[in-house]
Amino acid sequence: MAATTPFSQLTGVVQVFIAPYGESIPDVDTTPAGNWYELGSTDGEQSVKFGGKPVWFRDNDHQGPVVGIRPEEDVSFKFRIVDLTLENWARVVSNVSKIVTGTTTLGANTKKLPVKRGSVLVEYALIFRGSAISPYGAYPGQFVFPRIMLGSEPEIKAAKNARWYLDVDGMVLEDDNQSEDDRMGWLIVKTS
Amino acid sequence: MIDALAVVVKHISQDTDVMALCDIRIAPRHKYSNTTVAGAWKTPAKGIELQYDPGGTPDIEQPIQNIRIRASCYGEDDYQASRVYNTLVHVCRNANRIVVTTSNGIAFLYWLLLDSSPETQFNNDISMPFVQVFLTARIAEVPITAS
């Protein structure tokens, strides 16, 4: 049985915040505000995957590999949202600027979201924030991805006994405006 | 070692909504009695009994207690028992990685969640209805040291 402290076993869900690319990154002990928009509620797990399969090189002098390199690297994420306001929906499948409000001939107010998404993906910044995911105490922590694009291909399933949802996934992109180490995001936790 | 049930009892008994309805009547075994025994809970009154129930999966690798709890939410009538149950639902919605101070040390509650839908029952011995619901919780066995 390995030595452990209760805090360092991490559990719990995260909140998803999204903002236009370039938005300033909030401190870990501050709830994102301003242009940061909580994309939720989510249902089930939220995941972050660190991809990038190494290539192992061998030579004639050795039986085993002599060096490995990682020629490509991916950071991807996915989650499922169930609060299907058009404002949430638009951020996932299109762009929030595409929502058009209107009025019917009978005088009812409406909101319209185009289904066609177009060829250009919108750049966002994304934060996965947990209120107590620090391994050093009951403190908040957050994954920060300064530049992402959502690549979702969600499928709506309407049923009598099931909730509608949008599966959201996307890819972290290099952000040349960050320092070299931080170009694909970072994890920051509060320690005191 | 941390007493897992004591952690859950303490956490629930600290909730302001639960306290407003049940006062101090939250315990591993109810104390309803109309005798004059010290500490007896006079009937009818709202209260919560929290007992271990099988159904959790023990963690055989890490010093973690995964427990399942049978919660009996007592009330003067069915409606009042449901009110107590509703406060318990609220507690479970917000129990995520919480530090709880117990007599055995400072404990860490990873989660406390509902594990069933409610069932209305009646306790003939004390002539009070209660709403039974099962909870699941994860608690660290080792106490948190001050850092």
Shape of chain B: globular
- The tally of strands of chain B reads 7
How many angstroms separate the termini of chain A?
Answer: 27 Å
The DSSP helix count of chain A reads 1
What's the topology here?
The complex is a heterodimer of chains A (192) and B (147).
Chain A: E1 15-20, E2 37-38, E3 47-51, E4 55-57, E5 67-69, E6 74-81, H1 86-93, E7 100-103, E8 109-112, E9 123-130, E10 141-150, E11 166-172, E12 186-189
Antiparallel strand pairs in A: 1-2, 1-9, 3-6, 4-5, 6-11, 7-8, 9-10, 10-11, 10-12
Chain B: H1 4-13, H2 16-22, E1 26-27, E2 47-53, E3 64-74, H3 78-93, E4 96-102, E5 105-114, E6 119-123, E7 128-140
Helix pairs in contact in B: 2-3
Structural overview:
The complex is a heterodimer of chains A (192) and B (147). Chain A has 192 residues and is mainly beta. Chain A has one domain. Helix content of chain A is 4%, strand content 33%. Chain A has one helix and twelve strands. Chain A has one helix at residues 86-93, and strands spanning 15-20, 37-38, 47-51, 55-57, 67-69, 74-81, 100-103, 109-112, 123-130, 141-150, 166-172, 186-189. In chain A, strands 1, 2, 3, 6, 9, 10, 11 and 12 form an eight-stranded antiparallel beta sheet that branches. In chain A, β7 (100-103) and β8 form a beta hairpin. The longest helix of chain A is centred in the middle third of the chain and has 8 residues, at 86-93. Chain A is globular and about 80 Å long. The mean pLDDT of chain A is 93. Chain B is α+β, with helices and mostly antiparallel strands. Chain B has one domain (4-30, 41-140): 2-Layer Sandwich (STM4215-like). Chain B is built from three helices and seven strands; from the N terminus they run ααβββαββββ. In chain B, strands 1, 2, 3, 4, 5, 6 and 7 form a seven-stranded mixed beta sheet that branches. The A-B interface holds A 1-2, 4-7, 9, 11-13, 131-133, 136-138 and B 61-64, 96-99, 108, 110-111, 138, 140, 142, 144-145, 147.
